[in-house]
Amino acid sequence: MSRPRRRGGEHGSAIVEFVWLAILLLVPLLYVLLAVFDTQRAAYAASAAARSASRAFVTSPDQATGYARAEAAARLAFGDQGLEAGGFTLTISCRPDPQRCLTPGSVVAAEVRSAADLPLMPAVLGGNIPRIAVSAVHRSPYGTFREGRS
After folding, report:
1. Which UniProt keywords apply (predicted)?
2. Any idea what DSSP says for residue 7?
3. pTM (2 d.p.)
4. Most buried residue among 10, 57, 83, 99 by CB atoms closer than 10 A?
5. Nearest in space to 57 (alpha carbons), one of 147, 150, 140
Protein backbone atom coordinates (compact mmCIF):
# COMPACT_ATOMS: atom_id res chain seq x y z
CA MET A 1 0.00 0.00 0.00
CA SER A 2 1.48 3.33 -0.98
CA ARG A 3 1.14 6.52 0.94
CA PRO A 4 -0.39 9.57 -0.62
CA ARG A 5 2.21 12.05 -1.70
CA ARG A 6 2.38 15.46 -0.08
CA ARG A 7 2.33 18.53 -2.11
CA GLY A 8 5.73 20.11 -2.29
CA GLY A 9 4.35 23.66 -2.28
CA GLU A 10 3.28 23.67 1.39
CA HIS A 11 6.43 22.30 2.92
CA GLY A 12 7.79 24.79 5.52
CA SER A 13 4.96 27.27 5.24
CA ALA A 14 4.04 26.99 8.94
CA ILE A 15 7.18 28.90 9.90
CA VAL A 16 6.38 31.69 7.47
CA GLU A 17 2.80 31.90 8.75
CA PHE A 18 4.02 31.97 12.36
CA VAL A 19 6.50 34.77 11.65
CA TRP A 20 3.87 36.89 9.90
CA LEU A 21 1.36 36.29 12.67
CA ALA A 22 3.96 37.20 15.31
CA ILE A 23 4.82 40.43 13.47
CA LEU A 24 1.16 41.37 13.07
CA LEU A 25 0.51 40.84 16.79
CA LEU A 26 3.76 42.06 18.34
CA VAL A 27 4.11 45.37 16.50
CA PRO A 28 0.76 46.77 17.76
CA LEU A 29 1.46 45.39 21.24
CA LEU A 30 4.86 47.09 21.28
CA TYR A 31 3.27 50.38 20.16
CA VAL A 32 0.65 50.19 22.91
CA LEU A 33 3.37 49.53 25.49
CA LEU A 34 5.40 52.52 24.29
CA ALA A 35 2.32 54.76 24.51
CA VAL A 36 1.51 53.50 28.02
CA PHE A 37 5.08 54.04 29.23
CA ASP A 38 5.22 57.59 27.83
CA THR A 39 1.85 58.43 29.39
CA GLN A 40 2.92 56.96 32.74
CA ARG A 41 6.13 58.99 32.65
CA ALA A 42 4.18 62.20 31.97
CA ALA A 43 1.66 61.39 34.73
CA TYR A 44 4.43 60.73 37.23
CA ALA A 45 6.19 63.96 36.23
CA ALA A 46 2.96 65.93 36.69
CA SER A 47 2.37 64.37 40.10
CA ALA A 48 5.92 65.03 41.28
CA ALA A 49 5.81 68.57 39.88
CA ALA A 50 2.56 69.41 41.70
CA ARG A 51 3.91 68.04 44.98
CA SER A 52 7.24 69.84 44.66
CA ALA A 53 5.64 73.11 43.56
CA SER A 54 3.20 73.28 46.47
CA ARG A 55 5.91 72.45 48.98
CA ALA A 56 8.32 74.99 47.47
CA PHE A 57 5.63 77.66 47.62
CA VAL A 58 4.78 76.96 51.27
CA THR A 59 8.43 77.05 52.37
CA SER A 60 9.28 80.29 50.55
CA PRO A 61 9.96 83.51 52.48
CA ASP A 62 7.29 85.54 50.65
CA GLN A 63 4.56 85.08 48.09
CA ALA A 64 6.46 86.60 45.14
CA THR A 65 9.40 84.28 45.72
CA GLY A 66 6.98 81.39 46.19
CA TYR A 67 5.72 81.57 42.61
CA ALA A 68 9.27 81.54 41.23
CA ARG A 69 10.29 78.63 43.48
CA ALA A 70 7.18 76.66 42.58
CA GLU A 71 7.86 77.10 38.86
CA ALA A 72 11.50 76.06 39.29
CA ALA A 73 10.52 72.99 41.31
CA ALA A 74 7.99 71.93 38.67
CA ARG A 75 10.56 72.36 35.89
CA LEU A 76 13.03 70.25 37.82
CA ALA A 77 10.47 67.47 38.32
CA PHE A 78 9.73 67.36 34.58
CA GLY A 79 13.44 67.41 33.77
CA ASP A 80 14.01 64.45 36.10
CA GLN A 81 11.64 62.40 33.94
CA GLY A 82 13.37 63.42 30.72
CA LEU A 83 10.51 65.60 29.55
CA GLU A 84 10.87 69.12 28.21
CA ALA A 85 10.66 71.60 31.05
CA GLY A 86 8.26 73.98 29.31
CA GLY A 87 5.65 71.37 28.41
CA PHE A 88 3.31 72.02 31.33
CA THR A 89 1.13 74.67 32.94
CA LEU A 90 1.30 75.36 36.66
CA THR A 91 -1.52 77.02 38.56
CA ILE A 92 -1.15 78.02 42.22
CA SER A 93 -4.30 78.72 44.21
CA CYS A 94 -4.81 79.46 47.90
CA ARG A 95 -7.66 79.09 50.35
CA PRO A 96 -9.29 80.81 52.17
CA ASP A 97 -7.77 84.11 50.91
CA PRO A 98 -6.20 83.96 47.42
CA GLN A 99 -4.32 87.23 48.03
CA ARG A 100 -2.62 86.05 51.23
CA CYS A 101 -1.39 82.52 50.67
CA LEU A 102 1.23 82.45 53.40
CA THR A 103 -0.99 83.08 56.41
CA PRO A 104 -1.62 80.58 59.20
CA GLY A 105 -4.36 78.09 58.35
CA SER A 106 -4.24 78.58 54.58
CA VAL A 107 -3.93 75.76 52.06
CA VAL A 108 -1.85 76.12 48.91
CA ALA A 109 -2.89 73.99 45.92
CA ALA A 110 -0.62 73.44 42.93
CA GLU A 111 -2.23 72.10 39.77
CA VAL A 112 -0.06 70.86 36.93
CA ARG A 113 -1.42 70.07 33.47
CA SER A 114 0.57 68.44 30.71
CA ALA A 115 0.18 66.02 27.83
CA ALA A 116 2.08 63.03 26.49
CA ASP A 117 2.57 62.79 22.73
CA LEU A 118 1.81 59.44 21.19
CA PRO A 119 5.12 57.87 20.16
CA LEU A 120 6.32 57.41 16.59
CA MET A 121 3.76 59.71 15.01
CA PRO A 122 4.85 61.02 11.61
CA ALA A 123 5.67 64.66 11.06
CA VAL A 124 3.19 64.65 8.16
CA LEU A 125 0.44 65.32 10.70
CA GLY A 126 1.96 68.74 11.38
CA GLY A 127 1.01 70.23 14.72
CA ASN A 128 -1.93 67.88 15.18
CA ILE A 129 -0.04 65.06 16.84
CA PRO A 130 -2.39 63.12 19.14
CA ARG A 131 -1.74 63.70 22.82
CA ILE A 132 -2.96 62.18 26.06
CA ALA A 133 -3.70 64.81 28.70
CA VAL A 134 -2.45 64.29 32.27
CA SER A 135 -2.92 66.48 35.33
CA ALA A 136 -2.19 66.43 39.03
CA VAL A 137 -3.14 68.51 42.07
CA HIS A 138 -1.33 68.65 45.40
CA ARG A 139 -2.45 70.66 48.41
CA SER A 140 -0.05 71.73 51.15
CA PRO A 141 -1.26 73.35 54.36
CA TYR A 142 0.68 76.36 55.51
CA GLY A 143 0.11 75.44 59.14
CA THR A 144 -1.97 76.97 61.87
CA PHE A 145 0.90 77.63 64.28
CA ARG A 146 3.34 79.28 61.89
CA GLU A 147 4.21 82.93 61.52
CA GLY A 148 2.41 84.64 58.65
CA ARG A 149 4.42 85.91 55.67
CA SER A 150 3.36 88.35 53.03
Report:
1. Membrane, Transmembrane, Transmembrane helix
2. P
3. 0.79
4. 57
5. 140
Domain extent listing, the chain: 14-121+128-142
If DSSP codes are grouped into helix, strand and coil, which group holds residue 3? coil
SS3 string, 103-137, reads: CCCCEEEEEEEEEEECCCCCHHHCCCCCEEEEEEE
Residues composing the chain:
150
Handedness of CA 100, 138, 46, 136 (dihedral sign): negative
Q: Specify whether the CB–CB gap between 91 and 57 falls below 8 A.
A: no
Residue 130, classified by CB atoms within 10 Å of its CB into exposed (0-12), middle (13-18) or buried (19+), is exposed
Strands 107-117 and 131-141: antiparallel
**Residue 120 contacts residue 30 (beta carbons within 8 Å):** no
